[in-house]
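Re: that chain you flagged

S.,

Sorry for the slow reply, it's been a week of failed gels. I finally had a moment to sit down with the sequence you sent. For the record, here it is as I used it:
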Amino acid sequence: MKKALALVALSVFIFGCKSAADKGTVSSSGEIEKEWVEEGITKNYIFARGIGAADQTLENKTQKMATSRNASIVNGQYNMLSFIKGVNLEGGITVEKAIETDSVLATKIDAVIKGAQVVRSEWTSDDGCIIVLRLPKRALKEAGIKIVE
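Prediction finished late last night. Pasting the structure tokens below so you have them in one place:
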């Protein structure tokens, strides 16, 4: 019995407790997986994924990886904005409608999105990059954006 428990504990330690969402998006051969699990909006966070391609004219691998990561972060921020635009605010309108008439709100949302945390970075075999951004919903609340849960 003790050996079985030790084996289970060792397996968890070595392999971790990953869900399908934690699986990653790049295969062991360095190619992008054909299927991903998107988390989107959860109870406490808003997640977004971004993909950036490497500039293949660059000869330096580090430069390729850095530029693709920067591009993937910008793409992830754009995707996160798309999620947030669909969120309902108190008063029954979406963020997208509120932004049209309130430039201060648009500026606040832009600042909050830029503060989103990169929680995963993966590179493809051609030095492209895929990232996952995470934004706590409380960051929106702290910025004065009252969303309906």
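What I noticed first: DSSP finds five helices and three strands in the chain.

Talk soon,
D.
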